[in-house]
Amino acid sequence: MSRLAQTHGLTDVQREILSTVRDFVDKEIIPVATGLEHRDEYPQQIVDGLKDLGLFGLMIPEEYGGLGESLLTYALCVEEIARGWMSVSGIINTHFIVAYMLKQHGTQEQKDHFLPRMAAGDIRGAFSMSEPALGSDVSAISSKAVKDGDAYVLNGQKMWLTNGGTSSLVAVLVRSDEGHPEGTAPHKSMTTFLVEKEPGFGEVRPGLTIPGKIDKMGYKGVDTTELLMDGLRIPADRVLGGVTGRGFYQMMDGVEVGRVNVAARGCGVAQRAFELGVRYAQQRHTFGKQIAQHQAIQFKLAEMATKVEAAHAMMVNAARKKDSGERNDLEAGMAKYLASEYCKEVVEDAFRIHGGYGFSKEYEIERLYREAPMLLIGEGTAEIQKMIIGRRLLEEYRFQD
Q: Which of 100, 153, 267, 365 holds its CA 20 to 30 A away from the CA of 343?
């Protein structure tokens, strides 16, 4: 176990879970990750292994067949998995956001129907907010749901749907003006629908099409897709929570979990980059000695390790804050911002330590160098995090004249 990024105050159960996950990562993920990534191949065998370990039910309450663990336990598992291959952590992230939203906001019937099968990994979750012209402006969502008898008809195009092909349940955020008069604030006229579908591509249910995978620079293996709704009929009992107009708040609650997840991914990728850098620095010789003995390289290693440690501490703090039941958008925003920026910097320093070999696909650092940028934009860009952080700070430190 590395000295860096240790978490104090864990229970014996948490330590046992993390040890099991780390062992799985070292044996089942790291040896095959680069080959799978270069082929953009879905890691089915790895996913089956995670299912056997019970990780798809990690945060789902025991009454629904899950392990009932905390967000902290989940985040530390994500950190370990991302250390092996960040794409695998993306496969479970959207699943857990949907499971969390169901647990927190779903009707009892919705919980009873979905959570046991999600805990078993038989239903895989995905969630969808973004649209082609949307960017970070969630209030500009144009996809729409219109009431039609005892159902709703959904139309519109969604974008950047992680697990779009492999998922069988998608939480989709759309505009629903029914019951909300003209002039209602945009975020108060949005609704989350629980859309069940068949895994795969093409028309996966009447009115719903998943066109195919989006070709990406990195973050390969996991399928990222569009979602096209054309007359998609959804029963009224598949409105998350049973009431329209609450979708924005439900999604933002889920995204706070997602931001802790992205912070954890940044920590995991940064840890792996440091491991690769410090190892290569002791293998490569220049001017008659290991490059690790050159002061310039030692400075890099010192900076990298400090950033790994700082990012991990902020991620753990954000997870513990959410577990306590307190509002954690400030801590989650800070953790996501710092961890993703530091991840990019640590990966680049490890890349520089490798010199010309870092540019070769034979070396693992090349893959990490293409993966790190996704963390800068996933679950909200750095600029969005700064807006959240700034607004919350002004709330906390309001000056009274």
A: 100
User: What value, to the nearest 5°, has the Cα angle with vertex 29 and ends 27 and 31?
Assistant: 70
Q: How many helices (H) and strands (E) does the chain have?
A: 11, 10
Rounded Cα gap, residues 332 and 267, in angstroms:
14
> Cα angle at 91 between 85 and 96, to 5 degrees?
125
Q: How far apart are CA 149 and CA 110, in angstroms?
A: 21
SS3 145: strand
The catalytic residue among 37, 309, 371, 379 is: 379
pLDDT tens, position by position, 204-215 = 999 999 999 999
Cβ within 8 Å of residue 241, ≥6 positions away: 105, 106, 107, 110, 192, 250
| Phi and psi torsions of 193, nearest 5° | -110, 140
Shortest CA distance to 133 belongs to which of 158, 154, 155, 162? 158
Q: What is the DSSP annotation of 9-77? A: T--HHHHHHHHHHHHHIIIIIHHHHHHHHHHT---HHHHHHHHHHTGGGTTS-GGGTS----HHHHHHH
Phi, psi of 245, rounded to the nearest 5 degrees? 90, 0
Verify whether residue 379 is a known catalytic residue: yes
Most confident of 7-21, 172-186, 381-395: 7-21
User: Rounded mean pLDDT of 314-330?
Assistant: 92
Bridge-based pairing state of the strands 125-128 and 169-175: parallel
Sign of CA dihedral 313, 319, 325, 328: positive
Place of tokens 């293996």: 221
The answer to pTM > 0.85 is yes
Whether the per-residue pLDDT at 40 is higher than 60: the answer is yes
Helices (H), 106-221: 108-119
- Average pLDDT over the chain reads 93
Query: How confident is the model at residue 1, as a pLDDT?
Result: 55
For range 66-70, the mean pLDDT:
95
Percent of the chain at pLDDT exceeding 90: 86
Neighbouring CB atoms inside 10 A of 3's CB total 7
Q: Which residue has the tokens 């870092």?
A: 358
